[in-house]
């Protein structure tokens, strides 16, 4: 029984790590630009397929339409593919900001919601033209065997996902709190106008925020692909759960979003252990409860300004 | 140093400042006084670049800066201590000051030395250096806002309502600091509802009424002008 619990906890934390990364990506653009990329799901899917393309390109192997050979992900190739997917998604993030967000940011109305959703639909159609609708099995760089930890079966990719997610979040936290650029991002998040009075180029920071946010989504796609299979339809579900994690933790608090993502992942896999069909019911009931009793999120704080 | 020619500023269809022509010479303290909603803060926002200028021209050190974005104006030497302080409440006093010098890319030692200078000027901030700005009192936040603006080593310091919402004793303290800044050679453009205090320390002043400059003169002239006394000094006298 203990083995089952450990197994559930590890997969919950791994999936939660992915939620946390994506939740963080929502928080990054929301705090700095007060907008969000509603095409984040498509960015995740795209990231996975760019990762797949990079794996095939780097290994010089021809992949089938439905499965990538295991050796394509071996050694340095998987990290390299992850980096490529992150960078490409980051560049796409700059594009979506310039084309679909900036024209509407800071203005009345929510035009950016529709324009980013539209951007996502376009991306998905392009993706379907290039890669088709079929899911692709992606190998884990550590193989697809099962590790035995205290009797529990753990997939090596789950450990990779968890370790990468934690490493990225620790680095992000350090950058935000300790570096000049991090403090500038916090300043823009607090007030773009006041930040500009510090000589901060607010527009550049906002572009950077979108690049970072989209890069994280792309990376999340590559990380999750060996567990969930790469599919152009996989992103939406992850993005929705991650967004819920962000709401639970508090959208304006990056650390809260990370906790929210992990909480959701563990909760989801624990409920799944008991009754799989109750997963979504429990998750979304929790969101409604949080919204009703703590609208700022579990870890969000209502800001107090002295007059 | 600073020259405004026929400047119009508007929030959408609502004109806030019309046809304002204002001049600030190097080394001067110039005050802009006027009632609530006269357009004083809007004028400073226009000078700092936070509001687009509808028509007219702003020049600084003989360069046209009318369309220059705010972060570039800061680098040219114009710093604004904004209305309502606007300190970064979720960051420490120290980090707020660091942000004030953001574009200057100082070395750690140089930054430390300049923050030390601000602590000499505002000793209360030294005690609070690692506290979050949101935990400061209103007066301390005002001091932080001024110190943060000074961290950019401005040639021209714009001060927007530094007395707003503060106790008389704190206001005296802040005005004493303004006088000492002027002695240190910083040119100051001061917007104040506390007309008596502002006029008392100003070399020259402008009176702004519903977006128009209606009077100008030396601080002393306006301080003793019967119209100004009736309109602005009677109301604010108790706080002096």
Describe the protein in words.
- The complex is a heterodimer of chains A (307) and B (240).
- Chain A is mainly α and 307 residues long.
- Chain A has a single domain, classed as ABC transporter involved in vitamin B12 uptake, BtuC (Orthogonal Bundle).
- Chain A has 11 helices and 2 strands, in the order H-H-H-H-E-E-H-H-H-H-H-H-H.
- In chain A, a hairpin with a 2-residue loop joins strand 1 and strand 2.
- In chain A, helix 2 (40-59) runs antiparallel to helix 3.
- Chain A starts with a helix and ends in a 14-residue tail after the last helix.
- The model of chain A is unreliable at 303-307 (pLDDT under 50).
- With 240 residues, chain B is α/β, with parallel strands linked by helices.
- Chain B has one domain (2-238): P-loop containing nucleotide triphosphate hydrolases (Rossmann fold), CATH 3.40.50.
- Chain B contains 10 helices and 10 strands.
- The relative contact order of chain B is 0.18.
- Mean pLDDT of chain B is 93; it is low at 235-240.
- Chain A binds chain B through residues 180, 183-184, 186-187, 190-191, 193-202, 303-307, and chain B through 48-50, 69-71, 74-75, 79-80, 82, 84, 86, 88-91, 95, 98-100, 102-104, 134, 136-138, 141, 148-149, 152, 165.
Query: Reading side by side through the largest sheet of chain B, how are the strands ordered?
Result: 6-7-8-3-9-10
Strand content of chain B is 25-35%
Question: What is the rounded distance between the termini of chain B?
Answer: 31 Å
Reported for the largest beta sheet of chain B, the result is: 6 strands, mixed
**SSE run of chain B:** EEEHEEHEHHHHEHEHEEHH
- Would you tell me the structural class of the helices and strands of chain A? mainly alpha
CATH architecture of chain B: 3-Layer(aba) Sandwich
Number of helices of chain B: 10
**Count of beta strands of chain B:** 10
Distance between the termini of chain A: 57 Å
Helix/sheet category of chain B: alpha/beta
Number of extended strands of chain A: 2
- Which residues of chain B sit in consecutive blocks of at least 5 with pLDDT less than 50? 235-240
Topology pattern of chain A, helix = H, strand = E = HHHHEEHHHHHHH
**CATH topology term of chain A:** ABC transporter involved in vitamin B12 uptake, BtuC
Judging from the principal axes of the Cα atoms, what is the shape of chain A? globular
CATH superfamily of chain B: P-loop containing nucleotide triphosphate hydrolases
Spatial order of the strands forming the largest sheet of chain A? 1-2
**In which range does the helix fraction of chain A lie?**
over 70%
